[in-house]
Design brief:
The complex is a heterotrimer.
Chain A (H helix, E strand, L loop, with lengths): L1 H24 L7 H10 L3 E5 L4 H14 L3 E5 L2 H13 L7 E3 L5 H6 L3 E2 L3 H4 L14 E14 L24 E4 L3 H24 L3 E3 L2 H10 L4 E6 H10 L5 E4 L3 E13 L5 H12 L1 H6 L14 H9 L2 E4 L1 H4 L2 H13 L7
Helix pairs in contact in A: 2-10, 3-10, 7-14, 8-9
Chain B lengths: L2 E12 L2 E13 L4 E5 L6 H9 L6 E6 L2 E4 L12 E4 L11 H6 L11 H14 L15 H13 L5 E5 L7 H18 L2 E6 L2 H7 L2 E6 L2 E6 L1 H6 L4 H6 L4 E10 L4 E6 L2 E6 L9 E6 L5 E3 L9 E12 L3 E8 L2 E8 L9 E6 L4 E5 L14
Parallel strand pairs in B: 3-8, 3-9, 6-7, 7-8
Antiparallel strand pairs in B: 1-2, 1-4, 4-5, 9-10, 11-12, 11-14, 12-13, 14-20, 15-19, 16-17, 16-19, 17-18
Helix pairs in contact in B: 3-4
Chain C lengths: L9 H12 L1 H25 L1 E2 L7 E2 L2 H8 L1 H34 L5 H7 L8 H12 L5 H11 L15 H11 L1 H14 L2 H9 L4 H12 L1 H17 L2 H7 L7 H10 L6 H26 L23 H28 L9 H4 L5 H8 L3 H31 L6 H9 L6 H13 L12 H25 L3 H9 L4 H12 L1 H17 L2 H6 L7 H11 L3 H30 L5
Antiparallel strand pairs in C: 1-2
Helix pairs in contact in C: 2-15, 2-19, 2-21, 3-15, 4-8, 4-9, 4-12, 4-14, 5-28, 6-13, 6-16, 8-13, 9-12, 9-22, 9-25, 10-11, 12-15, 12-22, 16-28, 18-28, 19-20, 19-22, 19-25, 21-22, 22-25, 23-24, 25-28, 27-28
Classes of the chains: A alpha/beta, B alpha+beta, C mainly alpha.
């Protein structure tokens, strides 16, 4: 009798304690920057999932620590499959990362699955350009990808390089232009061009017999080695990757008069993250002027922010920037991609 | 340990329709007896043996080993739990083991578990029984056929099973070896007093080794008895011609006398025979006479007590100890034999003599029975 | 006495008793079937779902209607069937020929050849395609450069070619050469275990070596060969690395490229549509299987391994020995040496350059330094080795047990089991991985806490490779005479004991071949480990992916070179082990 009584008591207390503890451990997110910083100092090392390597990591680590005295641990996740996995894990309640770079296709899924939390980015980081902040509050864009014409300097004279996208349709480039079959460049142009101009362009592009490729980095490599003459529409960072590794590679880039941009890296805070406040500081830091400077190593600096490499390049090229922004990325981009791919003569799926 | 088989049934579905492999088969094997299932291929003898072993399962019936029912409608003991040893036609010696390891294997199984020290003694003992102890460490693939058979035997016996099953173990060996091993196996089983069930299509083996033979055909036992009974007193024409050679004279019973003898009228002559009870005059009959019961004479005989038919020598084959003759008697070809030194040139007119006691009268052939001519040897 | 002869439903009685007396085998099989059904079920479900599988939007038939009403579907299908047929034919002919030459003839350096033939499968598909693209790209391919220089000596000058890998010929070549090792391993066990008396009977009847080969050896081994051909065919149909890298620039459209376009290009990824294609592959597999079982039914009846002792007879082929060796070396050159050299070349440069004096000046070991400076390298190596050994052992043991039931057990429904074992081969690796992720993230398996551990990774590979294992073991078990097992039963051994003390040792050559295959594939596996690896279980694929994305292929090439070099002593070791174990059976 006595045993049972004491057992029950222990159970009840234990249960209550655990309940209490669990509510305490559901991390609180600060409302103001000061609160966030204060809470962040009590948290552990931020767990980051994205695809940086090398110098980018080192510089950001230095800067982040200098600004907030905090550290982060990055896990390299490249490719759709890893991000899918993170999504599936989060849906099941297993949250290993605090802040994740979510690629375009998956952003709607992450929102729908409710595995990320909206944050008052604008309130916390007023100096960040509002265009970088997702209107729904989930994402903050730190990296912007810009798409250029990459060409082999041995085979293509600088004077011959297309100055506009329409120049790529010139018959002299028949069977010489490599086109990556995921039309990120062209969905980037779509908001500026509209459907009619876009589809007309793509039908003509198809008629000009391009070389279709399935691999971004590989295409750039083939241009560098001289197999392809040029590519109309590769992200700048592929050029950077090659040039960084192989300084004498005969490869160069050129910005046409219209320069498409896409959100290159957008961070979101995971629901149930163990260190959400530190994570917020991390993402915010990257969107800030200082953090943005580091993006030159990643090839995705923001052309809208003064002082960045992208900004300088674009100014020198005098290109008009076309940016679809948050509204376009996601479902609209998907629809545009389908139409483009269909105009190219490929099956478009559902 | 005795073995009792009751009403075994088994059907096989083949692409040509169902086949009755076993048809309400029943027999008993007494303790220590050497019992042979003899029959042509497809008669079901191997199937029966495998049902007893537990390698196959009958559709109905019951099998009992000793006082334990090992197979019945709701009972099934798997082979590894039955107190048996078995020798296969292909010996089934495991090529990745030595002779010793092959024979030792049964002793390492739960059913017969024996501690290591005792194992060695038992294995060497049984190897000695089959005269293979010198080759104990030889890897199995390096054995000749006869040696493998001995090892198979040793392996089957090592765990002192209650019943030994042998599935045509000698059919892959050459004639001399077969003869040798026939004697050895019989001796061994007799000495150990082990109940043995032997399956073969070779009637010489069956006759030489068995205490009792069961002649099978079409999933049934046609006749069961001692070798002498089977040989000298076959009850059907099939048994008569399957076990040993036989000549058939078809005819009808003409008279029956009081002393059990009667006369059967055949196209080859009037034959005086021992009539079985129940054969009345007028009944169709077949007289079976074994070739060795006939003597070949160059002149007609005068002894009225003996049966005699006249014919001409068709073929004479010298077999070493005897001459096997085919004699044309009327329309029939009759087999007979004679001593090697006799003069038997083809074409010679001869008289075949045999005693009435050498005749076995079987019910006459009806149209329903299949033709049972002598199968070419 | 006198029990009536009751005929009870035989099938039912049989199954229940089999289960009761073969408890271990039954338990293992049930688990295996459950594990396989996870991705199969997921595939079927996904094909009827709208939206992301983790957050589905409802049931639909649109996936099916879209897939089959697609204009290019049938064209791509025809292309794929054609390519797969030709590629498989080439692969099977080469593999069977080599299996015969290596196991049954007196071709010189046979042992070496057996080892060498394992190496091509170590090269990840993406690197193999890359290597050949670097060799035979029309403008800058290394081999083309050399050939052009050579032809220039004869006054023939070209700016491109002469060989263009971006062509249907290129695709056929890649497909044909690629799969030889797998087919070889599937048939070599059967060749080795074959009873030589079958051939001897033919030779005694005055048949020459070639006639014997075609009229006796091949038919006797046809179950194994057919199974291997079928497996290779499906692999060809599913392969996407080559068609994407080499076919797309040449405008050659096959099923896998179609799938790529319809499911992976746009946002969001279309799992539903991809699942339909996966289901179609599975159906194709089932059809092939039905045909295969019919074709093999007759030959299923013969066993060629008996207890009568077998020492595979070596056939002398006289002066053809050297031609045979030359042929083998030619194959090895194409399958390993050429791509290895170009990968090595690339790995020593910051980026691929056509061979030239200037390029030679840029050679350095910088890439290798970078590889080894990556902090996770040692952990990755260790994890990968563990994964290799565990996956290989688990897969082959399970395959062995499953195959045994399929071939031997008198249970109805083993044909279904056979089909079930083969079906996973049709499921894309990504689907297997995703299915397992979801299975282990949700109750009840969630509570095992195994998610993210090596166990799930091993399971993923088991599902992927069980098909190969069972094909191999099926053919091998069929060769072993039943009486060898029956002798064990009557000697008192239960099923499990017989399986592992009698059957398995007799099968050892085939088992070992399978083990090696699975181990090497586990080593170079890509999509499954990539998705199932967690932070603690990073394996080779993860590293390769990272280098690929960031290294302009020169880093990845370096990794490929290291992999191939690492595999050589490994295969030598395995080969030595296999020979030793086989020697114990008395058959060298």
């Amino acid at each position: 009798m006595h045993c049972i009584a004491s057992y029950t008591r222990a159970l009840v207390f234990g249960g209550a304690f655990m309940l209490l503890a669990s509510t305490v451990s559901a991390a609180e997110i600060g409302k103001t920057l000061e609160e966030v910083i204060a809470l962040a100092k009590k948290e552990g090392t931020v767990q980051v999932a994205n695809s940086w390597r090398g110098r980018m990591l080192k510089e950001v680590a230095k800067g982040f620590e200098a600004r907030y005295g905090l550290t982060f641990k990055q896990t390299y996740v490249g490719g759709i499959s890893s991000r899918e996995r993170i999504l599936s894990e989060a849906v099941a309640g297993l949250v290993e990362y605090d802040v994740v770079n979510v690629s375009g296709e998956l952003r709607p899924q992450y929102i729908k699955a409710e595995v990320i939390v909206p944050v008052g980015w604008g309130t916390l980081f007023p100096e960040v350009n509002p265009m970088l902040i997702d209107p729904k509050g989930y994402f903050i864009a730190a990296g912007i990808s810009r798409y250029a014409i990459i060409y082999n300097t041995n085979t293509v004279a600088a004077a011959d390089v297309p100055k506009t996208w329409e120049d790529c349709l010139d018959p002299k480039w028949k069977r010489k232009v490599a086109i990556y079959t995921r039309p990120r460049t062209f969905t980037g142009l779509w908001p500026g061009w509209g459907e009619t101009r876009s589809l007309d362009f793509h039908r003509k592009l198809r008629a000009n017999d391009p070389i279709w490729t399935a691999d971004q980095t590989g295409t750039a490599a083939k241009i560098a080695q001289g197999e392809y003459a040029l590519s109309c529409g590769l992200p700048y960072h592929t050029y950077l990757n090659i040039k960084r590794r192989d300084k004498t590679a005969p490869i160069a880039f050129a910005y046409p008069t219209e320069l498409p941009l896409q959100i290159g890296e957008a961070f979101a805070i995971m629901k149930g993250a163990k260190n959400p406040n530190a994570a917020i500081l991390f993402a915010g830091f990257l969107a800030s002027k200082e953090g943005q400077k580091s993006y030159k190593h990643f090839g995705r600096s923001n052309p809208f922010v003064e002082g960045t490499v992208a900004n300088e390049q674009v100014a020198a090229a005098k290109s008009k920037l076309i940016f679809g922004g948050w509204d376009f990325a996601g479902a609209k981009e998907g629809a545009a991609a389908k139409k483009i791919v269909e105009a190219w003569g490929f099956p478009k799926g559902k | 340990m005795e073995v009792v088989v009751r009403e075994l049934n088994k059907r096989f579905g083949t692409s040509h329709g169902d086949v009755n492999a076993l048809n309400t088969l029943s027999f008993d094997v007494k303790k220590g007896e050497f019992y042979t299932l003899l029959g042509p291929s497809g008669c079901g003898k191997s199937t029966t043996l495998r049902c007893i072993a537990g390698l196959e399962r009958a559709d109905g019936g019951e099998i009992r080993i000793g006082d334990r029912v090992v197979a019945a409608v709701n009972v099934w003991t798997p082979p590894n739990e039955r107190p048996i040893g078995m020798v296969f036609q292909s010996y089934a010696i495991w090529p990745h083991m030595t002779v010793y390891k092959n024979v030792e294997f049964p002793l390492r199984q739960r059913r017969n578990r024996v501690p290591k020290k005792a194992r060695r003694d038992m294995v060497m003992e049984v190897l000695a029984l089959v005269q293979m102890e010198a080759l104990a460490d030889r890897p199995a693939p390096f054995l000749s056929g006869g040696q493998q058979q001995r090892v198979a035997l040793a392996r089957a016996l090592v765990s002192r099973p209650d019943v030994l099953l042998l599935d045509e173990p000698l059919s892959n060996l050459d004639a001399k070896l077969r003869e040798e091993l026939r004697v050895e196996i019989k001796e061994l089983t007799r000495r150990l007093g082990i109940t043995s069930i032997y399956v073969t299509h070779d009637q010489v083996e069956a006759l030489a080794m068995s205490d009792r033979i069961a002649v099978m055909q079409g999933g049934r036992i046609l006749q069961e008895g001692s070798p002498k009974d089977i040989y000298l007193r076959p009850e059907t024409s099939f048994v008569a011609q399957f076990v040993g050679q036989v000549n058939f004279f078809s005819g009808a019973v003409s008279t029956a006398t009081q002393d059990g003898y009667g006369v059967v009228e055949t196209p080859q002559g009037r034959l005086r025979c021992n009539l079985p009870a129940g054969m009345a005059p007028g009944a169709a009959a077949m007289v079976a006479v074994r070739p060795e019961a006939m003597t070949i004479a160059s002149t007609a005989g005068l002894d009225a007590a003996l049966n005699e038919v006249e014919g001409a020598i068709e073929k004479a084959i010298f077999l070493g100890d005897i001459i096997d003759c085919q004699v044309q008697v009327g329309t029939e070809s009759v087999r007979a034999r004679t001593s090697a030194v006799d003069d038997v040139t083809p074409g010679k007119r001869v008289w075949l003599r045999f005693s009435p006691d050498a005749c076995v009268v079987l019910p006459g052939r009806t149209s329903a029975e299949p033709e049972l001519r002598q199968a070419p040897r | 006495m006198g029990m009536g002869s009751l005929t009870v439903a035989r099938g039912m009685r049989m199954s229940w008793d089999v289960l009761r007396h073969h408890a271990l085998v039954a338990l293992v099989l049930v688990t295996l079937v459950a594990v396989i059904m996870i991705p199969v079920a997921r595939l079927l479900i996904n094909s009827f779902l709208e939206g992301h599988p983790a957050i589905p939007e409802g049931w639909t038939l649109k996936n099916y209607t879209t897939a089959f009403s697609m204009p290019l579907f049938y064209e791509a299908l025809v292309n794929t069937l054609g390519l797969a047929s030709v590629g498989t034919a080439i692969t099977v002919v080469i593999a069977v020929l080599f299996a015969f030459l290596i196991e049954r003839t007196d071709m010189p350096c046979r042992n070496l050849a057996w080892t060498l033939i394992l190496i091509p499968m170590a090269i990840p598909g993406v690197l193999f395609a890359l290597g050949w693209a670097q060799l035979l790209s029309p403008k800058t391919g290394a081999l083309n450069v050399v050939l052009r220089d050579f032809l220039a000596l004869f006054g023939v000058s070209m700016t491109e070619g002469p060989i263009n890998i971006y062509s249907i010929g290129g695709l056929i070549f890649l497909d044909g050469v690629r799969g030889v090792t797998t087919v070889f391993l599937m048939v070599v066990g059967a060749f080795r275990m074959m009873d030589p008396s079958l051939e001897e009977a033919a030779r005694v009847s005055k048949a020459g070596a070639i006639a014997t080969f075609f009229h006796v050896t091949l038919p006797a081994l046809s179950p194994a060969i057919l199974a291997a051909a079928m497996y290779s065919f499906i692999s060809s149909m599913e392969s996407f690395e080559a068609p994407l890298a080499v076919g797309l620039p040449a405008n050659i459209f096959v099923l896998s490229t179609l799938i790529y376009f319809t499911t992976r290009i746009q946002a969001p990824l279309d799992y539903g549509l991809a699942a339909v294609f996966g289901v179609s592959y599975m159906l194709l597999m089932v059809f092939l299987l039905i045909w295969y079982r019919r074709a093999v039914r007759v030959s299923e009846r013969f066993s060629t391994v008996t207890g009568k002792g077998f020492r595979p007879r070596v056939i002398s082929i006289g002066r053809w020995r050297w031609a045979a060796l030359a042929m083998f070396m030619g194959y090895f050159l194409l399958a390993v040496v050429a791509p290895f050299c170009v990968l090595l070349w690339t790995s020593l440069l910051p980026g691929y350059r056509a061979p030239s004096i200037e390029a030679m000046g840029m050679i350095s070991l910088a890439n290798y330094v970078e590889i080894f400076e990556t902090d996770r390298v040692l952990q990755v190596i260790w994890n990968t080795l563990v994964l290799m050994f565990v996956s290989a052992t688990v897969t082959m043991i399970l395959a062995f047990m499953a195959s045994w039931v399929i071939v031997r057990a008198p249970v109805r429904g083993r044909g279904l089991l056979d089909s079930l074992m083969f079906v996973p081969h049709a499921i894309p690796g990504i689907v297997i991985a995703l299915a397992l992720i979801m299975a282990f993230l949700t109750p009840p398996l969630r509570y095992t806490g195994l998610y993210g551990s090596m166990v799930v990774l091993v399971l993923g590979l088991v599902v992927a490779y069980i098909s190969f294992g069972t094909r191999l073991m099926n053919g091998a078990i069929m060769q072993i005479q039943k009486e060898l097992e029956q002798a064990a039963y009557v000697s008192g051994a239960g099923t499990a004991k017989t399986l592992f003390q009698i059957t398995l040792p007799l099968l050892f050559p085939a088992f070992a071949a399978g083990w090696v295959w699975v181990a090497v594939h586990a080593l170079r596996a890509f999509s499954i480990p990539l998705m199932l690896s967690s932070k603690n279980t990073e394996v080779f694929a993860v590293l390769l992916w990272e280098f690929w994305e960031n290294g302009t292929a020169s880093l990845a090439s370096g990794l490929g070179v290291l992999l191939i070099l690492a595999l050589i002593p490994l295969t030598l070791l395995m080969r030595r082990f296999i020979t030793q174990m086989s020697g114990q059976q008395g058959g060298a």
